[in-house]
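Appendix C: a fully annotated inverse folding record. The material below is reproduced so that readers can follow the format used throughout the book. The structure is listed first as tokens, followed by the designed sequence.
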């Protein structure tokens, strides 16, 4: 993997989605070694192709554990990135500066007395992006909320989306306080719509990348239960796949390279669980011309997902 690919993957893992920013040195990524809210891990590549990692958070001084956290977040073998060897002594831990998120302990399912999640509430605003534009709830098999995934967008004056991010919200104890925190729910994470999957043990399941596409899939194919992993993205192995044991699952991929990579990882885990895996193929299009039904080729665009197909008029 190149430095750019590593940064891209980290920025899409753990339920997060951030655009990778380039610096003069390399790329900035969300650090998997601490609860990172804004990318503070620099990822660069030496001329010989060695990956150099440095986290700028003052709480994150153990370089060896930065390397092993990145390896584990990307599903690589321990030591694959060639971090510091056995003689390495981490520098003393510096007191965290303001703005660096402290560790939290999730309380799941979300207790009844927790403040209700709502898009309008000040509690769930981002300084940079404002209020979330959409949010999805993840439930356990009994239907109790486990956590939320919220989507934030920045638009230009013409209303075009110029940047977007996904924040997972988890109810937790942090520094003795019970509160909503930005962070992924504990692993193994529940898949999206687990309660519906559990309630209909014979229903066919449709798998999408991301909740927005899953919801669109649910409207397009109402007999199949739509699911995904938290925030879509590149870390499906952090989700519990046991609910899919023996189930029929239809993979509906985003039509781009990360989409292919994601469904391959998902397919491998599903097959391990003994699920029957099918792939959604793109249908012939039909339109009416001069009162006759005409068959045509359905033309797809790069990165298309079920939400795009729905917008284009699939019914
Ligand atoms: Zn860090």
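Designed amino acids, in order:
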């Amino acid at each position: 993997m190149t430095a750019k690919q590593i940064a891209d993957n980290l920025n899409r893992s753990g339920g997060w989605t951030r655009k990778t920013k380039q610096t003069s040195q390399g790329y900035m990524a969300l650090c998997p070694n601490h609860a990172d809210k804004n990318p503070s891990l620099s990822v660069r590549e030496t001329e010989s192709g060695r990956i150099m990692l440095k986290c700028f958070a003052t709480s994150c001084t153990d370089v060896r554990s930065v390397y092993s956290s990145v390896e584990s977040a990307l599903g690589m073998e321990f030591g694959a990135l060639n971090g510091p060897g056995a003689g390495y002594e981490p520098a003393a831990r510096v007191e965290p500066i303001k703005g660096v998120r402290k560790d939290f302990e999730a309380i799941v399912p979300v207790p009844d007395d927790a403040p209700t999640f709502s898009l309008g509430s000040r509690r769930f605003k981002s300084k940079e992006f404002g209020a979330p534009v959409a949010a999805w709830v993840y439930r356990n098999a009994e239907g109790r909320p486990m956590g939320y995934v919220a989507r934030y967008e920045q638009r230009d004056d013409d209303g075009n989306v110029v940047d977007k991010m996904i924040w997972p919200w988890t109810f937790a104890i942090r520094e003795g306080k019970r509160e909503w925190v930005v962070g992924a729910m504990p692993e193994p994470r529940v898949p999206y719509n687990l309660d519906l999957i559990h309630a209909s043990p014979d229903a066919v399941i449709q798998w999408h990348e991301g909740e927005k596409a899953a919801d669109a899939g649910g409207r397009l194919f109402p007999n199949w239960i739509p699911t995904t992993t938290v925030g879509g993205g590149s870390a499906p192995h952090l989700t519990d796949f046991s609910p899919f044991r023996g189930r029929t699952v239809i993979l509906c991929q985003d039509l781009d390279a990360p989409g292919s990579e994601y469904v391959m990882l998902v397919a491998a885990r599903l097959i391990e669980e003994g699920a029957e895996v099918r792939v959604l193929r793109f249908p012939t299009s039909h339109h009416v011309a001069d009162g006759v039904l005409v068959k045509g080729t359905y033309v797809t665009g790069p990165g298309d997902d079920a939400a795009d197909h729905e917008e284009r008029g699939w019914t």
